[in-house]
Amino acid sequence: MSAVRIKKGDTVKVIAGKDKGKEGKVLSVNAKNHTALVEGVNMVTKHAKPSAANQQGGILHQEAPIDISNIAYSLKGKETKIGYDFKDGKKVRVAKATGEVID
After folding, report:
1. In whole angstroms, how large is the CA radius of gyration of the chain?
2. Which cysteine pairs are joined by S-S bonds?
């Protein structure tokens, strides 16, 4: 598998699956499983029993992980691939479409 170039806090766009076209912020990335949690994308319904933390219990709606291959980095509303470059002796992420430094 290739390296995961998406990081927590990035804005991404879903390019495949039931939520195709939606944009959201990455909440977490799991490089081992090649998945990411994206805010408001791939919502699932979970039934929770009452517990000390959740007195009420009931039906919860939460994000489920989505495969990294189904999302693309979104720069100003357009998808772009991410590359790496060295600027001032530091390795930085670069948008391949525009050449703009991401972080």
Report:
1. 17
2. none
Tell me which residue range forms the domain holding 47.
11-95
User: From CA 15, how far away is CA 69, in angstroms rounded?
Assistant: 8
How far is Cα 44 from Cα 66, in angstroms, rounded to an integer?
A: 12
Please state, in angstroms and as integers, the Cα–Cα distance from residue 17 to each residue in 28, 72, 88, following that order: 19, 13, 39
pLDDT in tens, 27-37: 999 999 999 99
Q: Is residue 54 part of a domain?
A: yes
Q: What is the pTM of this model?
A: 0.84
Round to whole Å and give the CA distance between 75 and 100.
9
CA dist., res. 37 & res. 31, Å (int) = 11
Report the alpha-carbon distance of residue 57 to residue 28 in Å, rounded: 25
d(CA 56, CA 2): 43
